Amino acid sequence: MLKSAAIILTALAATAVASPIAASNAGATTSDVFPPPSATVNSVLFPDESQLGYPGITVSNLSPQYSVDSAVYGLPGASPAVPEHCEAVQVHYYYRHGARYPTTGAAPSAFAAKVHNATQTNASFAATGPLSFLNSWTYALGAELLTPFGRQQNFDLGVGARVAYGGLLNNFTAAGKLPVFRTESQDRMVKTAINFASGFFGVPEATAFLPAIARLNSWITGINFTATDIGAMLQLCAYETDALGYSKFCELFTEEDFEAFEYGYDLSTVIPVYDSTTNSTLDGSNITFPLDQSFYADAAHEVSILDAMTAINLTALAPTPLSPTTDSRNHTFVASRVVPFATNLVIQVLECQSSAPTKQIRSVS
């Protein structure tokens, strides 16, 4: 790749010598609008969302997170926004990791092994009808780790948290402290917290971009590229490739440039790794379990979040026990609603001047 990059860069340098005149629309930010403003939707072919009444495939706790009408839990019209006359003075985020691959030895891989064994040991094995795809199907999933979509879920959650509660960081600045974000030692949990923090704090510019800055600035006049510009062009390489299938920006960078960009993304924060056997002692340390923060974020598994919901007695999630024998289909405790991938429980500590007492606590899920 480096040899190819050298050939490409040499060609680019040769082009720069010719001093081409930039087009007047270079860097234009306008784009095509789709659908056109005059377009209308055929309501027969595409019914309104309210008529569908079903969010898609929800496979229990393995479904992606989606919005659930608050009326389902007896709170019609409820909003996660801080109420008027109130100010969020402290926030606790308790969130699940995003979508992951199945755990090692779980049912999906065991099923694949069963099919494979049948093809090897049973000469009469043949799938027909809707199952005919099994004749050539292979198991292509990883194990334990977050999927790309799962990482994006946690990153997006961090972005949303920063937009909603970023002002609380001023308290840390005033106190001269840094927030403590906690998680577990499993790889997917560490990556979950890293991606949340990347969305919350943003990805720092990498000093490793300095060679790329110097190289690209030598090929242009009238503008001076910075590390931010290098990051933007690397993103354009990805965005244009995803959307258009090809990007000239990709040709500008070496393998080291791409690796530096990727590393900068992962290096957004440093999270200590602990064995699960020591987690029970963390609450005794002011370093790992501070009690004076205005913003907390703890990455967890769905069972831990369910434990927390039980501990604070969120009875609206399950006002009546579930029947062990009959599925009435009208119960409110549904795993795909409560603990899907990237679910989060936000506990707001509010200061409301019009309430008595003025300090109020609210849970948002």
Task: Give a description of the structure.
- A hairpin with a 6-residue loop joins strand 4 and strand 5 (359-364).
- Strands 2-3-1-4-5 form a five-stranded mixed sheet.
- 35% of the residues lie in helices and 9% in strands.
- It is built from eleven helices and five strands.
Helix content: 25-40%
Structural class: alpha/beta
Q: What form results from the Cα inertia axes?
A: globular
Low-confidence segments, given as residue ranges, are 1-17, 265-278
Helix and strand pattern: HHEHHHEHHHHEHHEE
Radius of gyration based on Cα positions: 26 Å
Please tag this protein with its features:
single chain; 365 residues; alpha/beta; 5-stranded mixed beta sheet; globular; disordered N terminus
Short description:
The protein is of the alpha/beta class. The chain has helices at 2-17, 49-52, 107-121, 148-165, 169-175, 187-201, 210-217, 227-244, 255-266, 302-311, 335-338, and strands at 86-96, 181-182, 295-300, 344-352, 359-364.
Secondary structure elements and their pairing?
Layout: H1 2-17, H2 49-52, E1 86-96, H3 107-121, H4 148-165, H5 169-175, E2 181-182, H6 187-201, H7 210-217, H8 227-244, H9 255-266, E3 295-300, H10 302-311, H11 335-338, E4 344-352, E5 359-364
Parallel strand pairs: 1-3, 2-3
Antiparallel strand pairs: 1-4, 4-5
